[in-house]
Amino acid sequence: xxxxxxxxxxxxxxxxxxxxxxxxxxxxxxxxxxxxxxxxxxxxxxxxxxxxxxxxxxxxxxxxxxxxxxxxxxxxxxxxxxxxxxxxxxxxxxxxxxxxxxxxxxxxxxxxxxxxxxxxxxxxxxxxxxxxxxxxxxxxxxxxxxxxxxxxxxxxxxxxxxxxxxxxxxxxxxxxxxxxxxxxxxxxxxxxxxxxxxxxxxxxxxxxxxxxxxxxxxxxxxxxxxxxxxxxxxxxxxxxxxxxxxxxxxxxxxxxxxxxxxxxxxxxxxxxxxxxxxxxxxxxxxxxxxxxxxxxxxxxxxxxxxxxxxxxxxxxxxxxxxxxxxxxxxxxxxxxxxxxxxxxxxxxxxxxxxxxxxxxxxxxxxxxxxxxxxxxxxxxxxxxxxxxxxxxxxxxxxxxxxxxxxxxxxxxxxxxxxxxxxxxxxx
Length: 427
Fold this sequence. Notes:
Structural class: mainly alpha
Number of helices: 17
CATH topology: Growth Hormone, Chain: A
CATH architecture: Up-down Bundle
Shape: globular
CATH class: Mainly Alpha
Number of domains: 1
CATH superfamily: MFS general substrate transporter like domains
């Protein structure tokens, strides 16, 4: 395998790699977090409580599929030497399904539910293969800043997409919710257009195997079983993924229910929610870049720990805030910490990843993240149903950050990096 580029500047491949994140965040921002989630609740379902329950189940179902499938598919991509092929198919599928959300109208609950689940599964699959390129394109010394720049590019993409969505919603008629549905076409077109450099510029490092696709999957299953049988060797990876499984629960709730919380508790409109989201994306982008350099200086584990402390305080303040004005304080705290938390988690796993296991390890990364997507929304929805309070449901998020922080303290970052280096030399 060809070695990563030298530690000098940002290569054309790294620029193209980061641009893919600029493209893909349109789906996460417009579909998952801020627009389609609220549209599904209020218009497609037409009932806030039932809409919340069904949206929770949609997020849960897609998370379960990703958690079960991605370690095997990631390992299959490594074995076949075709991470780029897997990325291309999952990208195309996400784009087409996102565009089809335009046709989901009032009462089309089953159609909207299934299309979103399929699109979200493919979106998360694409992230696995995309993340798998990070260890190949960067060295451990600057993994933090590269990962941070990638996350920041994603937030910039989401920010610009939100600006365009806000403009579209002001220009297009609201008859038949056409103004809102049009943003799904925007998300699909944005993703398709800005994903192109990744496929044109970035090259596959692994040697391709000329065997049937069925063999890829069989090999993927065998590789995953072998890795699970060697957890003693990969114990720092396992500890990191366990900690992330817990603290990512809190982030999933914030991502999946931000629009619903703002709309239900404070009565914000679609347009007001988008304006709110623009500010958070700015904060997240700044935080991701700034803490990328902090990550490279002090390490990923201390960086993640800092973010978890701040996120815990922010979750409690957000549940308490009596007005939208006061809610801005914890919201911006979350914005500044979300990017660094995710970027540092990704960079830490990248430094723990031996050669020829990039897809597999990031498949497990998706497993931990998406298994978390089951518990977080489930707890949020259950607390809200039992108490009738969205504020208490939001306060429950803090518990995931606290427990995740405790588990993170068991991760030995230096040992994980040394293990990856030793296994890479033996590969």
